[in-house]
Design goal:
By secondary structure, this protein is mainly alpha-helical. It is built from six helices and no strands. Helix 2 (25-54) packs antiparallel against helix 3 (58-84), helix 3 (58-84) runs antiparallel to helix 6 (150-183) and helix 5 runs antiparallel to helix 6.
């Protein structure tokens, strides 16, 4: 880091301390990351119904509906985490989730309505979201433990388990049904 950048960073840190702000940088990062995943989960409340509408398979539709209900509970859990931190629940735009959501919209547009291939694309798009959430909740739970916020770590781990289960369910739907239907599909059939 150049010397001028180091001086600016040091000056910024010391001015925060002078203003009475003594939160460790890690806790600030943790809080900021919570705002990010809060936005992501709230965004999913709008995105999942669109994907459900675009899906053909009843099994996939049921899975998406169930995950929408889980997502509502996950939003409530995040609000509980903010409360435990003594903070107002705030959302900060999550660029990663926005990108994953745009990609999901794109694969729906690029596949034929009523086709198993579209369902395969929806599953893949949803699994990308699940993997992002798994990484986020796993990391946040670990940070909560590091910050000695055991209650919060437990709440985040509960959501982590649900995200992993959602990913496994999507894999099962793909491997046991939809992928095989899509493999035999031709453009005239869809």
């Amino acid at each position: 880091m150049p010397k001028t950048a180091t001086k600016k960073a040091t000056a910024s840190k010391s001015s925060k301390k002078q203003q009475g702000e003594t939160e460790p940088m890690l806790k600030e990062f943790f809080y900021d990351s919570l705002k990010d995943i809060y936005w992501a989960e709230k965004h999913l409340l709008k995105a999942l119904p669109k994907l459900n509408k675009a899906a053909t398979s009843d099994t996939l539709k049921t899975a998406l509906t169930q995950h929408l209900e889980e997502t509502k509970i996950q939003v409530e859990r995040l609000e509980q985490v903010f409360e435990l931190l003594g903070e107002k629940a705030q959302a900060k735009k999550c660029d990663a989730m926005e990108g994953l959501s745009k990609e999901a919209d794109s694969v729906v547009e690029d596949t034929e309505d009523g086709s198993a291939t579209r369902d395969v694309a929806i599953i893949l798009a949803c699994q990308k979201v699940e993997h992002y959430e798994i990484a986020t909740y796993g990391g946040l739970a670990q940070l909560a433990k590091t910050l000695q916020l055991e209650d919060i770590a437990g709440i985040l781990e509960e959501t982590l388990v649900e995200e992993k289960a959602a990913d496994e369910k999507l894999t099962d739907i793909a491997e046991n049904d939809i992928n095989f239907q899509a493999a035999d599909e031709t453009e005239e059939e869809a």
